Amino acid sequence: MRVLVTGGAGFIGSAVCRLLVGEANTTVLNADKLTYAANLTSLRSIDGNPLYGFRRADICDRRVVPALFREFDPDAVLHLAAESHVDRSIDGPAAFIKTNIEGTYILLEAALAHWRGLPAKRGERFRFHHVSTDEVFGSLGPAGKFTETTPYQPNSPYSASKASSDHLVRAWHETFGLPTVISNCSNNYGPYHFPEKLIPLAVLKGLHGETIPVYGKGDNVRDWLYVEDHARGLFAILNEGRVGECYNIGGNAERTNLEVVTAICRLLDEMLPDSPHRPHEQLITFVADRPGHDQRYAMDTTKMSRELRWAPRESFDSGLRKTVAWYLENRWWWEEIWARRYRGERLGTVARGVPSASRADSAFPGADW
């Protein structure tokens, strides 16, 4: 199989590329614009593998995208390229509309033209797999889980842009017959995660003895999914998922944000016995909440388990331990980012009726994905 992966230098995309090339012996072309959160060093383990190729490309470029299909001639598309950080979508929605909606449209048009030109047998096997988020469903109450039939109710510019792209993918299947599948995942975590998101941010803040921010009361609940489990789930959907269907992927690991940060602090205490910052829990500080912060997400993964025999291998405890240990052991990956590209400044404080963050809060991003 020849798979075109968009956004393959990002956090989830790089895990997918490592799995496809390193374990599944799949030929991959990674097309990535290389925005701020992309990092080609995350692909060091497969760089040079004859099954792997990279092309710097913007999915919003109407000339480049069709050329990718002509040159690579894929059997499938795994579409992960997206602007994904809720806080950044509050500060600047335009980039999210451009990439997540217009970029997906351009990719769908190129995929449709490519699929229509394939021989019959290859056309039957072709798949366009769109990778989305649980945030399109909105916010849950204290009970229940999102299913594949939960109505959409996005509450942030990010989730609204992803909901829009989901609808486009569905429309291209229903109207034009393009063989598509959609997956919606819960919060990912693991190695190679850009430190604007909660778990890597808390690890690096704690490691440096800096204040670890938690939004509001820290009672917002997320379901956490280890990124390599997610990659296996995407591979299962790409190979065995039913055309036109949607699949929820989650870790069955609900935790409040405060529980997540507290667990990280305790792991840092254990793994850094000589740290002058122990106990690291003393670094936790509550800051002004994110505007429109969804209270709870949780995913019903019954369909993935029943149809595709997929289940997460990592529990939250085992996955978090691996993640914290990875950041402590792989300074080469994050030190340049922390020193020159992103130092933990807070994002996403501009919204209707919400004042700018105080100077005391301004250094804390506290993102939850």
Give a structural overview.
The model is unreliable at 353-369 (pLDDT under 50). The protein is built from twelve helices and twelve strands. The protein has a domain at 2-190 and 226-249: NAD(P)-binding Rossmann-like Domain (Rossmann fold), CATH 3.40.50.720. The strands form three sheets. The chain has a seven-stranded parallel sheet with strand order 3-2-1-4-5-6-10, with helices on both faces. With 369 residues, the chain is α/β, with parallel strands linked by helices. Strand 5, helix 6 and strand 6 form a beta-alpha-beta unit.
CATH superfamily of the domain at 2-190 and 226-249, please?
NAD(P)-binding Rossmann-like Domain
Helical fraction equals 40-55%
What is the count of helical runs? 12
Given helix and strand content, the structural type is: alpha/beta
Distance between the amino and carboxyl termini: 31 Å
Give me the side-by-side strand order of the main sheet.
3-2-1-4-5-6-10
Helix and strand run: EHEEHEHHHEHEEHEEHEEHEHHH
- Average pLDDT reading: 93
Instruction: Report the C-alpha radius of gyration, rounded.
Output: 20 Å
Query: Could you state the oligomeric state of the chains shown?
Result: single chain
Apparent shape: globular
CATH architecture identity of the domain at 2-190 and 226-249: 3-Layer(aba) Sandwich
The third-level CATH topology of the domain at 2-190 and 226-249 is: Rossmann fold
Low-confidence stretches: 353-369
